[in-house]
Structure formats: structure tokens, C-alpha cells
């Protein structure tokens, strides 16, 4: 059981998180050079984010250790994002997840044919697996969040693994792999992307979606979040796929950092994005707190967030 103090330290603004972490090399290109892009996160707590000077991938610095992340997920994350979990995932989450799964299944429809093998890596409460199975696919999920995994098994009757090491599936096994808002939570997203690519058939497709750190319409600090130890933009998501031997499949609609990739034999080349880190440090430059309050820029996100919560709670799927 974490101490109340550990718990509180996650919520008091203008203080740091209760973790020590360790400096890390860029998981995408291996470089140690970086540019600082933020010192604060969305709840105005102290949290340093850096962009790799070589490839532009954003990461938390120092990087939380696996044990520190596990402790965070077991305590503060749950209280914060899965409040009222006792009776299963909150209705707001399920409604949102069902809408998203319908969209994802529609996008991948040409590949979701009877008999196709589908993996949802980070399947949450299992709505996409259920949608794939409804189309006749053999669908399996991986989900480390125990409550979500249990819910997916019980509610949708789908097979969900707690984790999947490299040897868990043979190379070239799946027709479709999807990973929705998962990579930003991982300490080793580029390595995981390579593992997913290995499990994919030569003509398979990989759907990957992450938040875009450079998306417009959000005050910069709102993009940073302790649970997101990596931050992507279009270029770095594509580079992560490129390192794993994949390129965007132009047969599929792409929205920003929601992309369907296919395999390619073209040589990988240098993993770099000259100038990207500098550009991100400019784009993500925080507004001083006083100016931010005075600008009123916080009003619209607050209204929108509340409206979304109301909609997710009362509009059933
Ligand atoms: Zn890098």
C-alpha cells in the first residue's frame, strides 16, 4: 500500500513527482544529446521533458524506472484516470472506447476478413477485439492493466494476455496488429514496434495511434503527462515505424498520428530528423502561468472537457 504522502505528491502543483528515475539514451536512435522542451506538465507539476537532438523523439528526463512506473500505475494513475473502477471500467471510458473501436474496425475493414489473425497490443477493455471477432477474425489481446484485461475476458469472451515477450508469437503470424495510445506509455516504444513488426505477416498491416505532441489548439503544458514517458509527432512516429521496417500504407486514410503502416524491403537508412528537436522546443514553449490565466485560453478546454464527460456519461453506445 503506498503512503498517503506518496499519493498526495502526485497531485500538488508546482512540486515534482515522487520518483528518482535515471538518465536514458533515446530509445529510437540511441543518442544522448537532447534539447529541453518542457519543465511542467498538464497539472502544473514539475516534470522535465526533452527532445532527442538527433531524431526529435520526446522523453521524460530522468526516465522513471520500471518499478517506479509500476507503482504509479498501481496507485495514482488508477485514482486519477480510472476513478470509480470498483464496478469495472467507468461508463465514460466504455462509451469512448466503443466509438473508437468502431472507427478503427471500419478503417481496417479490408483486412478484417474471416479467419484473419488480429492482435490488439494494449487492448484495454477489449472493444476492438470484439469488433474484429464480429467480422470473423481470430482476435487476441495483450493488456497489462489487470482490471481492464479481466473485464475484456468476461464481457467480450476474448483471449487477453498480461504481457507478450518476443517469443510469444512466431514471426509473420498476424494479418493485422493494432496499438492504440500505448507507445507513449512505454519506456522502449521503438523496440516494441520492432517486435510487433516481426509478428506481422509480410503483407500485414500495423495500425498505430499516439497523441500528437505538436497538435494545435492546446496550451503547451497540457500535452505533458507523467504516464506518457515518450511523446511523438508525425515525423517521430513514422521514424519509429521506419526503424522497424515499415512505411505508411497510402491505401489507408491517415489522420496525423493515427497511421496504418505496411512492411517494406527498402533499407532503413539513418534515423534522424534534423532540426526537429529545436522546432519542438519552440512550439512547445510554455506560456507564463500569469499570462496563461489572463489569456482565458484555459476556459475553452475546460468547457470542452466537461461537455465530453457529460456526453460520455449519458450517451450510451
Ligand atoms: Zn533519438
Structure notes:
The chain has 317 residues and is of the alpha/beta class. The chain has a single domain (4-287), classed as Rossmann fold (3-Layer(aba) Sandwich), CATH 3.40.50. The protein is built from eleven helices and eleven strands. α7 links the parallel β7 and β8. The two termini are 36 Å apart. It comes from Methylobacterium trifolii. InterPro entries: SAM-dependent_MTases_sf (IPR029063).
Compact overview of the structure:
The protein has a single domain, classed as Rossmann fold (3-Layer(aba) Sandwich), CATH 3.40.50.150. The protein is built from 11 helices and 11 strands.
Secondary-structure blueprint:
Layout: H1 4-8, E1 34-40, E2 46-52, E3 58-60, H2 66-74, H3 76-81, H4 91-107, E4 117-121, H5 127-134, E5 138-142, H6 146-156, E6 159-161, E7 174-180, H7 189-199, E8 200-209, E9 230-231, H8 234-243, E10 246-248, E11 258-263, H9 276-283, H10 289-295, H11 299-314
Parallel strand pairs: 4-5, 4-7, 5-6, 7-8
Antiparallel strand pairs: 1-2, 2-3, 3-9, 8-11, 10-11
Helix pairs in contact: 4-5, 4-11
The structure holds zinc ion (ZN).
Amino acid at each position: 500500500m503506498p503512503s498517503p504522502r506518496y499519493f498526495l505528491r502526485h497531485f500538488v502543483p508546482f512540486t515534482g513527482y515522487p520518483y528518482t528515475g535515471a538518465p536514458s539514451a533515446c530509445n529510437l536512435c540511441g543518442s544522448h544529446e537532447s534539447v529541453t522542451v518542457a519543465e511542467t506538465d498538464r497539472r502544473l507539476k514539475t516534470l522535465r521533458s526533452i527532445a532527442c537532438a538527433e531524431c526529435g523523439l520526446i522523453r521524460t528526463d530522468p526516465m522513471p524506472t520500471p518499478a517506479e512506473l509500476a507503482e504509479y500505475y498501481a496507485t495514482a494513475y488508477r485514482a486519477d484516470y480510472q476513478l470509480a473502477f470498483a464496478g469495472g471500467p467507468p461508463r465514460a471510458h466504455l462509451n469512448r472506447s466503443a466509438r473508437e473501436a468502431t472507427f478503427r474496425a471500419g478503417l481496417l475493414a479490408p483486412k478484417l476478413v474471416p479467419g484473419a489473425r488480429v492482435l490488439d497490443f494494449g487492448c484495454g477493455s477489449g472493444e476492438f477485439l470484439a469488433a474484429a471477432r464480429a467480422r470473423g477474425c481470430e482476435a487476441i489481446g495483450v493488456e497489462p492493466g489487470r482490471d481492464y484485461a479481466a473485464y475484456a475476458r468476461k464481457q467480450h469472451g476474448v483471449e487477453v494476455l498480461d504481457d507478450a515477450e518476443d517469443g510469444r508469437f512466431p514471426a509473420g503470424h498476424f494479418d493485422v496488429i493494432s496499438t492504440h495510445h500505448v507507445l507513449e506509455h512505454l519506456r522502449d516504444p521503438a523496440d516494441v514496434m520492432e517486435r510487433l513488426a516481426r509478428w506481422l505477416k509480410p503483407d500485414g498491416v500495423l495500425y498505430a495511434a499516439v497523441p500528437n505532441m505538436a497538435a494545435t489548439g492546446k496550451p503547451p503544458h497540457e500535452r505533458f503527462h507523467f504516464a506518457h514517458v515518450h511523446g511523438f509527432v508525425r515525423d517521430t512516429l513514422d521514424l519509429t515505424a521506419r526503424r522497424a521496417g515499415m512505411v505508411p500504407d497510402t491505401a489507408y486514410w491517415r489522420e496525423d498520428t493515427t497511421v496504418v503502416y505496411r512492411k517494406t524491403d527498402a533499407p532503413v537508412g539513418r534515423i534522424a530528423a534534423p532540426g526537429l528537436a529545436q522546432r519542438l522546443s519552440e512550439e512547445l514553449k510554455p506560456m507564463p502561468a500569469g499570462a496563461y490565466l489572463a489569456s482565458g485560453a484555459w476556459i475553452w478546454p475546460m468547457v470542452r472537457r466537461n461537455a465530453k464527460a457529460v456526453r460520455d456519461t449519458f450517451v450510451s453506445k
